[in-house]
Amino acid sequence: MRLTDKTIKNAELRSKPYKMPDGEGMYLLVQPSGSKLWRMKYRLFGKENILSIGKYPFVSLAEAREHRYEAKKLLKANIDPNDRKKKDKRTAMQEANNSFLTVAKDWHDTNKKKWTEEHGERLWSRLMLHASSLGSRAIADIRTPELVQLLRKLEKNHKPDTAKRLAQTFNVVFRYAVHSGIIEHNPASDLRGVMAPYENTHFAAIHPSELPELLAKLNVISTSTQNRIAVKLLLHTFVRPGELRYGKWNEIDWEKKQWHIPPERMKKRRIHIVPLSDPALALLRELQPITGYSDYLFPSHHRRRHPVMSENTINKILKTMGYGGRQVGHGFRAIASTVLNESALFRSDVIEAQLAHVEENSSRKPYNRAEYLDERAPMMQWWSDYLQAAENKNISKTRQAA
Question: Is the pLDDT of residue 341 over 80?
Fold first, then answer.
């Protein structure tokens, strides 16, 4: 007599395990504990064996019969169902170990020592944000059209630069999988032809004449003191935002009035010395009671996975101030470069050294971390004085209007 859900649910409990047959070798093994297990007895090449199908009700009666049907097909082809089950399990485990997320994480962990912390964080965040749909997929099953679809979606959302950079990351992740022997072909090897051409633009920056208004708005914007100091210190030092965010207190030489940024955080992998003007030092002294408990100048208070403030914090503040699309944190470097060059007070080599722009020409003399330091220190003080004059100019206008 074949089983029904009713007879299974009403099965009595006994002191010893017993079988409830369903035909063709399959039965339900009822345990004294109340556990009900699907089993199938079969014979292949004269040897008897038992296939474990699953536990009821997680495997329903209908599903158990489907498993029996598939096992019978394998037996007809002289394939042992238990061997196939073990093989499928190994394949599933291999696919899980070779999912896009697992391979991407392995690639990231292998290469992150080559990058600055900010760059590594940005690469990973971009993948997780825009390619999360690929995460659990076996990397061997991902095809070029899927990648194209993801990239075109970004283009339609007016994010061509993100699409371009994500395509580059796809290429290196899949190439890593090829070199690791996980896949044979890189589906992201040539995505340029299917993407709209994109011309890189400079980081948004206002005209220097708008600095008084920006500084006035910065002084009244609703944000934390730590965040306000971050924007001001970025202005006074015009380092890259990532160099600021990961800055540490032990890098500050108070006596020499210098900030020594280590090579691993610099784009060109060379130590960079930032002479600190009096206003920049004053900002650091104001910050010290707030974040001096941490190794970092600007620690994160909310993000568990990341030790420092978000890369979006400064740009969000500028956007709230009304500078969305017109000014970003990185753009402060362009403003400083413009003002310093137009002043005609400082040599271009000195300005470029302070911007940490290193020539790629191999014939150039070896880089000296203290190069032009005697000229850069007074230049940085001049720049801070310029910013303070801009701030005072707006204050003066406000008082006159009052």
Answer: yes
